[in-house]
Specification:
By secondary structure, the protein is of the alpha/beta class. 40% of the residues lie in helices and 14% in strands. The protein has one domain: Amidase signature (AS) enzymes, CATH 3.90.1300.10. InterPro entries: Amidase, Amidase_dom, AS_sf.
Amino acid sequence: MDNLATTWVGATAKQISRAVRRGDTTATQVVADHLEQIAISDPAIAAFRVVRAGEAIAEAEKVDDQEDLGNLPLAGVPVAVKENTPVAGLPTWHGSAAARSAVAEEDHEVVRRLRGAGAVVVGVTRMPEMGLWATTDGVEEPTRNPWALERTPGGSSGGSAAAVAAGLVPIAQGNDGLGSVRIPAACCGLVGLKPGRDVIPCDLGLDGWFGLTENGVLATTVADAALGFSVMAGRAPVKLVQPGRLRVGVSLRSPVAGVRPDQPNREAVATASKLLVGVGHDTVTADPPYSTAVGLAGLATWFACAYREADAAGLDVRSLQPRTRRHVALGKFVWRRGWVRQQQRDAWREKSIRFFADSGIDVLLTPALATAPPPADGHAGGSWRRNMQVNMAYAPYAAPWNIAGLPAIVVPVGLRPDGLPLAVQLVGPPDSEVLLLEIAGQLEVANPWPRHAFV
């Protein structure tokens, strides 16, 4: 922590907003502190595509000029926004210059809500090309994991996760189409919430990847995740309480055949299970009804997302990375043959909801990852086949719950023997976002985690 710029770097969003509202500090001071920390640390991490230094200070001054800060739950809180989410006055990069769209004339609705709550957007964070991959790197440089610079922070919201884990912002927006908030949260030791369908406005790209994509939040504490979720969902701040006795299903089964979690990830689930029993819940073995048909439908949908987004944006496919070109080509193939159907996704959603009812469980506990985060380098220029192998081998647990449209959260549970974070995933039925946050809060109290890896 020798490189900390000031005491406000590393503070939680709740601590910052409370201090600004009380007049103990100013939004301008808080934002200046974080911009200084970004200048110190981001050259090693490459979390940000663009830092809005001058604009952020000007916006912080406007927050300070408001007469009544009492109704601003994020007063003066620096936030980062993923680069596929329109921010007025900036291009929307989508992970590469080849996929970049024009300068946005207005903010995306979630950005508008963050700013309306008093938050200050200090910059937009990097993602892999078109958000397709679970590693965040481009042809220029990879984004690095603050816990181990040679490792990836995950993807596709890898820049947002790296920024929060390094203390460059207390919370960040991300979005999750097949795990893109939860995978980086697990890689970087953060709380990462993907809400269920239609809880937070999405409206990204053509149709949000057939409705699979949801905007979510990355934070170092459950309280901050709840605060960010409340603001983006347009709700009053969530008040978390102790949930009653729950029945928790526990599963190590991977959705991808032949992939098994390594020993540290199995131990993470065992640790979380014991902690949940310790706070009064019951645990039972309950494996979701994954099937080859669901897996193939998920793959075809992933491919088709790439093709349809590229086609709708009029992208020159030849300018894209080799791995992305192959993904787009496969997407064109499966889409034109009618292999991607809404009925498949609807059937899995219904089956997933029945799984909770039939098994009698309130929530499901799974690993967040199967292995350690892979190396940071070499993916953007690598082959499609190699990228697919890496993605599916280390991060198989997230995607089914996007297809089902169910809420899910990743929660840290400690560190691997190599010092990288460990995490678990909790999944719930529709409208269980607050319950998932409450259970995550119980895990946090019972087993606090290191909040930052300062660089």
